[in-house]
User: Which sequence fits this backbone?
């Protein structure tokens, strides 16, 4: 941490800050510039974290230099991590695609979706059994019945399951049916849920929060990893901005940021990221071109009758095109799909 | 809901949309404008909610006209609601102030804080026993020991308690010690927690999410009210914007918005809203001037040694000034403090 | 400026950065922490500004410590500046209110507006003669005819004039008729216009840009002051955020920020800041309570027939209430209106 | 436009709104729903634009249905427009790359840059002669000397020139030396400049404003087109969001949006869009994969000594890699580079 003093700070004020830091067992480095004096603090990070200096006279501001996360950081783990999800590897050379309806609605809908996405090359079946909805009056999901259908459909068509968990009490329940446990944007900083997932033995797909910074997102993953579960996959799904033409603003530079800062894989959700079906194919291509390790896409056999998110679902036919075009991009960046 | 057709839409396309709507048992109204045709849909709102029309040829966009919340809406409950919190009324003529440290740290710290805020006129003692922190390595709160200290300090100095609940399994535990249950910004759309609070008999202080819209915030309150708990108090605590000089951007127009759209009370948190102690007094004055029913303020006997949020805590002495100045504003708007 | 090295940086990499800085005639201070090494740079600020070090191996990031503005800064001019606008003083004890229609439409409209705002206590008549509009097909203002009407109406009712200038070629023209030259949000970083206003002898009302940071805003004022015109008044008019219920998000903490960082006055525009007439009175009260030196408010004799911005205009009757209520707040904070 | 009445609106209030609209010579369509009545307005758009109805009793809100821009809209011009820039076609099958330093610094720097970008396949030399800088004390550009150097370097290496114009008085001057006139983000809604460019015979590269919506951006282009200049090229360069890890958030879904809504070409600026040189190559790939017609990239022979934006400049060697990788993506989407 660095303390920037005001231009008007007196020597007494500077000395008082210095004394306060050193009395905590930390060391200081003073740099006296033309306008301002800067005090660097060196020593045990946890001691530094508890220092409160902004109230002292003469202090302009404090600047934090280092991040608190460690386990997720590439600085401490330079090689890419590859997450094994019951045999399917995420983060390696192969691009992995997860597809299926927003919500599990019925056996018929789900089997139709599963068959078609498998045929086009998806490796995972997605679908919500627990739906976090803005209004209490909207469809909330089929719960365990939905989970059972997911497992059944996935097994029949040789797919893996990824589905959202919204309650820390449901870890065992969701683990029973799903190969990856997904944390949604609204629970991105639900630390009780993250802690519970730290004890799970299944990989976690951690979506970025509605307005979560890269740093907060990495710290959220640190909650899971520091709990003992090292299998975390990031998922960029768009952030909230002033723009209303798209449902969210898909931040593909976040893919590059995660790749720079962390060793963990990152995939892209162009469906929630844009909220517009006509953008899903180009943004899937763009996601892979940016370096993503996979995609998660909403596919519904009949989007015009979907119970939720129909406007951002692809038909099986359009999904087949998405896979073809994404494959070409994967090859152009030296990967497989 | 309204369907806006493309300028290029053919009569066949318009008819198909019309047929689809009417086959769901809903009525349509067609307006043929100079450039575009608009189709209004009339009938059962829940049926409308499940219609998915954006995939039909010729459809430009759909526009939602009405909000889904009802119980929180002033349209259906024109008079102001006054929430009774064990004898202290929020939402009436009197401005209610809640104050205390960010986190409960020790009996000594808490009693010193409680004594001073009581002396200056606060009605509630605030303090966190469960702290949702960005990093898993930061101080996470004293848990039940913290709750016990809060109750003890509040009782000794004739204050009520308001404290945050971060886990739906803790409703009974927190109810035992606290007079108001607070939902923090990171849990603003943790619907499992909101549903659990719908079953509580204690009032809920519902903070606005980091980037929650007014509409989402009202719908979050609808989760609590539709569960059976009518005692909801909104708390504006700043939203996330591009500006970094302040920790958040305190949106005081949200106070006016809540007052227009809902019958429920709304208070302001200038401490988290700005993150800078020197702004807390002016923004407290501004909050009351904007029409808020109360304030929640961080006060720490020794902010320079606080374990969290010291930069946004007031000393007891500055808090006394805050109360004096806020009282003058309360009187200027015809209220009491 | 401070250079933060990567945890993996070698001594050679650190030395290379150090050498590069020192070869530019600057001094360095090295702090070796537990995880990372930090290099502080001391010396001539303009030399530092031209250093580019992020490309050197081992460099994690650079952190700028000091702001570039000087003339606007309270650090270099601790006392409040009071701007004299042809006899009306802004920034002193008295709150100054500017009011009038969004656009000058006709002599009748303007005189009716001027008479009513004068009667309620406004000191300035506002009104646009040059209107920057999002669409080229919207009403663009009456130009010089509008300026003439403004002057005539103001003179008749003993008011001063404030009006927007949108073109650097119009400085002389607008100066001829107006007492304050206003820079609108869309021109907040039109540096050619700011430079031209640096040569003007009339005070400038500098609105905050749509998504301008506090720092950028202060630098924009520095353009005007460094050109020779010391009479700058800031105007907070709302920033662009994700929230759509209000037209913009009025950031009243910016009033506190400007007061902390600069000696110049700052006023508030609740009309553009909210875009909703029913919020203008409470947000005017809030602005004064936050410490603003004045208000600029849209008042139209007949808002329901206004050519622009009717939804955010007050009637003369409501403006009279605004003045009454604002006066009470002004007194509550020890000022006059 | 549509008027949504309050649930509490009386028949008299509804009639009054209807009468007011019809007395302006417009037609109405009334839809009476379960909760609310909706009034559609049909007729001359310019008459509708001047209606102000939000002040009438019983009115909840007004909803605008159609956009005001026409010339830029794909609705009125379904085929892609291809802009001919002195022989180089933008918007056709070929991806066009513009590259060069942020600012023109010297003949040596510029010629070295021009030679290298030409060698790698760029078609345009970019470089700023007029630099809009946040601080008045930063380097402001070489002005006409810079323009001359640009022309000279471009001619020598058989490149075209694209450079920024920041002053409406400079149209003739910049036209003399440049093949494309660029409007920067800070002037995106400088309507005087846009109007002046409407009279130019050279193509305009219109960057998106810092927080400009898609709709505002299209309207800005409409200013240029309605002035008579049909040669507009959009440039997505990142928008301002809460995220600070990147300088801006590059919004590649805007590429899809422009392609859907307009017939005009759109290119991507990954340098300003991210502000981080290590992201430029992946985001260039992503931009082309999303459907962009070209790229504009900062290349500096020696970024570590650049006078501005060194952190986001590529070396010639990295730029060569960018071109190779972008070429593969172009081919994967069926285009050429």
Assistant:
């Amino acid at each position: 941490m660095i303390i920037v003093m005001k231009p008007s700070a007196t020597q007494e004020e500077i000395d008082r800050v210095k004394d306060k830091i050193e009395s905590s067992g930390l060391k200081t480095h003073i740099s006296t510039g033309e306008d301002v004096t800067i005090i660097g603090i060196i020593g045990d990070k946890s001691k530094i974290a508890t220092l409160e200096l902004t109230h002292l006279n003469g202090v302009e501001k404090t600047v934090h230099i280092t991040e608190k996360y460690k386990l997720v950081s590439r600085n401490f783990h330079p090689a890419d991590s590859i997450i094994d999800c019951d045999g399917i590897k995420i983060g390696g050379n192969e691009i992995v695609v997860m597809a299926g309806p927003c919500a599990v609605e019925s056996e018929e809908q789900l089997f139709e979706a599963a068959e078609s996405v498998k045929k086009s090359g998806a490796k995972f079946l997605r679908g919500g059994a627990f739906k976090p909805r803005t209004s209490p009056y909207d469809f909330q999901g089929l719960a365990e019945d939905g989970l059972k259908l997911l497992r059944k459909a996935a097994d029949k068509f040789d797919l893996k399951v990824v589905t959202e968990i919204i309650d820390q009490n449901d870890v065992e329940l969701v683990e029973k049916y799903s190969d990856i446990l997904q944390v949604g944007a609204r629970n991105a900083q639900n630390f009780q849920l993250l802690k519970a997932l730290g004890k799970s033995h299944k990989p976690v797909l951690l979506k970025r929060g509605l307005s979560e910074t890269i740093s907060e997102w990495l710290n959220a993953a640190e909650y899971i990893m520091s709990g003992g579960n090292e299998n975390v996959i990031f998922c960029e799904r768009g952030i909230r901005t002033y723009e209303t033409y798209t449902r969210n603003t898909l931040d593909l530079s976040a893919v590059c940021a995660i790749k720079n800062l962390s060793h963990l894989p990152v995939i892209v959700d162009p469906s929630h990221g844009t909220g517009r079906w006509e953008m899903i194919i180009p943004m899937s291509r763009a996601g892979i071109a940016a370096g993503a390790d996979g995609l998660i896409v909403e596919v519904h056999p009949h989007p015009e009758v979907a119970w939720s998110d129909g406007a951002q679902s692809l038909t099986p036919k359009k999904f087949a095109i998405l896979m073809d075009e994404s494959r070409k991009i994967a090859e152009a960046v030296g990967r497989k799909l």
Remarks:
- The longest helix of chain A spans residues 316-332.
- Chain A touches chain C through 29 residues (CB under 8 Å).
- Chain A has eleven helices and 14 strands.
